[in-house]
């Protein structure tokens, strides 16, 4: 029995790229879609936000000399590419899916309208939110938090490459300390880089729990949705 009725799942752009680290890897996208589809089939309403790093990292060097607002808009468009790729993979799993974008592009996706998004969720459709908030200077973590609050998700689940929140990067430091649970204030005061600070503060101010877990372990999305102790709980 799922613990949550409605979840906002945040995926990094790199999670779509597989080992290549760039672009969309069809098999990886299909595997992610299969896991998300299983959770939806269990009766959980799913909203998803995908980052754009798998495309944007390729122009990161050139972007250093670009205007910040332009760069952020490029990043938002990268998230739309990933959202469409994930939608295609989900539909191959026979799951009804809608992409809603904060930047209007009606030939490609629906414009984001909060009430329509909630209605899609109530009808059992997976909703993928793309293009961030449409505003520069906001990360996809912050955009995902905003969407989670708007759709009244019960948890903000962030899939990463590591098992949860550590005091330092466990991929670089073998003595990194793992936190099974941690408070919002500790994450902010320790400047732990697991989420954008604005996203953590928004979750704290609205008492939205955050689960950070390893997306690369098959079945972790389902375990998280069932309330198992997967990753780190920030509350």
What's the arrangement of secondary structure elements?
Elements (H helix, E strand, L loop, with lengths): L5 E6 L14 H16 L3 E6 L2 H4 L3 H4 L4 H24 L5 E5 L8 E2 L2 H9 L3 E5 L9 H11 L4 E6 L4 E2 L11 E2 L1 E2 L1 H6 L7 H9 L4 E5 L5 H6 L6 E3 L1
Helix pairs in contact: 1-4, 6-8
How does this structure look, described?
The structure is a single chain. With 235 residues, the chain is an alpha/beta fold. The protein has one domain (6-234): Carbamate kinase (3-Layer(aba) Sandwich). It has nine helices and eleven strands. The protein has helices at residues 26-41, 53-56, 60-63, 68-91, 114-122, 140-150, 184-189, 197-205, 220-225; strands at 6-11, 45-50, 97-101, 110-111, 126-130, 155-160, 165-166, 178-179, 181-182, 210-214, 232-234. Strands 4-3-5-2-1-6-10-11-9 form a nine-stranded mixed β-sheet, with helices on both faces. It has a two-stranded antiparallel sheet with strand order 7-8. The longest helix has 24 residues, at 68-91. It is globular, with a radius of gyration of 17 Å. The two termini are 22 Å apart. The relative contact order is 0.16.
> In the CATH hierarchy, what is the architecture at level 2?
3-Layer(aba) Sandwich
Question: Quick one: how many beta strands?
Answer: 11
User: What is the N-to-C order of secondary-structure elements (H for helix, E for strand)?
Assistant: EHEHHHEEHEHEEEEHHEHE
- The tally of helices reads 9
CATH superfamily: Acetylglutamate kinase-like
Give the N-to-C terminal Cα separation: 22 Å
Structural class: alpha/beta
Our Rg estimate from Cα atoms comes to 17 Å
Provide the helix percentage.
25-40%
Instruction: Provide the residue-averaged pLDDT.
Output: 94
Q: Outline, from the CA principal axes?
A: globular
Largest sheet: 9 strands, mixed
Strand order in the largest sheet = 4-3-5-2-1-6-10-11-9
CATH topology: the name is: Carbamate kinase
What is the number of independent domains? 1
Low-confidence stretches: none
Share in β-strands: 15-25%
């Amino acid at each position: 029995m799922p613990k949550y009725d409605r979840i906002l799942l945040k995926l990094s752009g790199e999670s779509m790229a597989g080992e290549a680290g760039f672009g969309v890897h069809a098999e990886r996208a299909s595997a992610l879609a299969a896991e998300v589809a299983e959770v939806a089939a269990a009766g959980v309403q799913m909203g998803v936000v995908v980052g754009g790093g798998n495309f944007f990292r390729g122009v990161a060097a050139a972007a250093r000399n670009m205007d910040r607002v332009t760069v952020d808009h490029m990043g938002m468009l990268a998230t739309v590419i990933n959202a469409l790729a994930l939608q295609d993979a989900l539909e191959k799993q026979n799951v009804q899916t809608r992409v809603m974008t904060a930047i209007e592009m009606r030939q490609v996706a629906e414009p984001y309208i909060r009430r329509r998004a909630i209605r899609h969720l109530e009808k059992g459709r997976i909703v993928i939110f793309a293009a961030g908030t449409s505003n520069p200077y906001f990360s996809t973590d912050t955009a995902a938090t905003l969407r989670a609050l708007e759709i009244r998700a019960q948890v903000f689940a962030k899939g990463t490459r590591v098992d949860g929140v550590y005091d330092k990067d466990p991929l670089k430091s073998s003595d990194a300390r793992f936190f099974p649970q941690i408070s919002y204030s500790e994450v902010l005061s320790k400047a732990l880089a697991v989420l954008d600070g604005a996203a953590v503060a928004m979750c704290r101010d609205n008492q939205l729990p955050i689960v950070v877990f390893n997306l690369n372990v098959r079945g972790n999305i389902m375990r998280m949705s069932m309330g198992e102790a997967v990753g780190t709980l920030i509350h």
